[in-house]
Amino acid sequence: MDLLAPIATVFLGLIMGYLGQRARMCFIGGMRDYYLVKDTYLIKGLIAFLICAFAGFLLFQFVAPALKTFPWFLDGGTVFSKKWAAKGITASPSPLLPAPGDPITWSPKVWAHVVLAILGGFGLGFFSCLAGGCPFRQHIMAAEGSKSAITYLVGFALGAVIFHRFIAPLIKAIFT
To answer: What is each CA distance from 135 to 52, 88, 148, in whole angstroms?
Structure first.
């Protein structure tokens, strides 16, 4: 059994948590502070995150040919198509959609994803602003012992279940 991935995940999680806690990293807070009082301290972290994410994506573009199935999104979902064909699923993922493993992707309707992204992004942003921080910051504050952050994370998990169990199928039914 290969233990490299779980050990690396825990190690990277501890590093990110430590750095996030020390830097007070918060994406929502960065946008809030910049918009309200023109404070750029937290938004610099958001900008650095976007630059690093773009650089990582470019790195994966060069590494992807050497790896057969990772990252899965670069090959247009053929990994999932083969698994679906083996299970007898006749639907095929749309190359325009971002997540070939997501069940809603079986529909070629891009508008369902657009509506879900807008609803989910608005809901997450709205409740994060009410809570005073993004989910990353809420995880850090929960680890520090904040009861309100723990409550937020419980609501975050319940909201994800409700969204994927009830709202996503409803939007899929409307747009397909």
So the answer is: 19, 38, 12
CA distances from 29 to 122, 127, 131, 152 (A): 15, 12, 10, 15
- Taking the alpha carbons at both ends of the chain, their separation in whole angstroms is 42
105-130 core/surface letters (b: 16 or more CB in 10 A; e: else):
bbbebeebbebbeeebeeebeebbee
Q: At which residue do the structure tokens 């807070």 appear?
A: 29
Q: What is the mean pLDDT of residues 90-108?
A: 52
pLDDT tens readout for residues 20-74: 888 888 888 888 888 899 999 888 888 988 999 899 878 877 776 666 555 455 4
Evaluate whether 91 touches 84 at the Cβ level (below 8 Å). Answer: yes
Torsion of CA 18, 23, 26, 29, to 10 degrees: 150
| Residue ranges of domains in the chain | 1-67
- Please state the pTM of the whole predicted model: 0.66
Residue 138's contacts (CB-CB under 8 Å, 6 or more residues apart) are: 128, 131, 149, 152, 153, 156
Can you tell me the distance from the alpha carbon of 139 to that of 20, in angstroms, rounded to the nearest whole number? 10
